[in-house]
Amino acid sequence: MRKLIILSIISLLGVIPICTSQNKQEKQEKMSYQDTISSSRVKLFLCGDVMTGRGIDQALQENVDPILYESYVKDARDYLLLAEQENGPIKDPVSYKYIWGDAIKIWEENSPQFKIINLETSITTNADPWPGKGIHYRMHPENVKALSAAGIDHCSLANNHTLDWGRQGLLETINTLDNADIAYSGAGKNEQEAKKPSVLDIDNGRVLIFSYGSPGSGIPREWAAETGVSGVNYLPDLSKKTLEKIKINVDQVKQQQDIVIFSVHWGGNWGYQISEDKQKFAHQLIDMAGVDLVFGHSSHHPMGIEVYNEKLIIYGAGDFINDYEGISGHEDFRGELTLMYFPELDPGTGDLLSLKMIPMEIKNFKLHKAKANDAVWLEQVLDRESKKIGTSVRREADNSLRLDWKM
Question: pTM above 0.85?
């Protein structure tokens, strides 16, 4: 019966060098140069939605009850079976590093100072889903080790799945991240906590991450944190009044030499269009609220990228981890292809110095470095969409993508 449901849902041998005083001097000069380069820029890793619930939770070391309350799928293991039908068997239980796949080596090669994600999954064993909501994501608290195995530094929680399993589920999510020593922002036990940014220390400064969630991404108004009520840091609209409140929130925390990231869950899942209101609001965040980087997510595919007044705006980062393999619909958007974003910022100004992107493919619940033809496809789409807002994207010999803009 379950199968019928699924089908319907559709390279050390070397010579030891003689160490001379010249060698030592050259080595010291090289190290000094590298240290200077490192201290003159802040390198981050950003990605969009990380969904580790449902089928992925069932493939990991521990599992919550697989019961679901969706219209067609009532058992989370069906998503695991669906992925196997699409791309071959997954030998579960998988290790906590498994889902990250090639991303582990890529992080080692690029050495970002912080890894920042949008976590679209409640971490809880609470059995009571939010009433009336059609989709509920959760993973077992033990599976937070998957985030720790990847060295995730920050999770944005202001999104449309954080309270899928109620306020009790939110509390367990927060406590689990606290115990795992993973920073988060965008949700809390009350409005004051939800508004607080993550604070990540860098040389002579800090990176502040404020997280907000918009109803346009599917966040119910009832999820808004209030005085004495837990919830998410709600972004009710893109009005001047809302902008002024954000400015006050940033001004209360920001110090000289701080870099401010505005992580925002907004917009629908599919489509490349960036509304005038959204673009204007992103610009105002930079001009008026002291934001250095707008990090948008919610779209299931990467969207166009802008650089405004030397500040990076990612309107939609795309998915990064999910269990959507084998689900039909929206194939033109190539939702299985995603990006690892590595922006480098000036620590004194927050200005963008460079943006490198690594194309990836989700397959067998695992991240694989994308093949050349897939990297070409992403280059073409991102270049097309980014040119509409003043930037361009080019592919390098190693199939990484680079953002170009007028300095």
Answer: yes
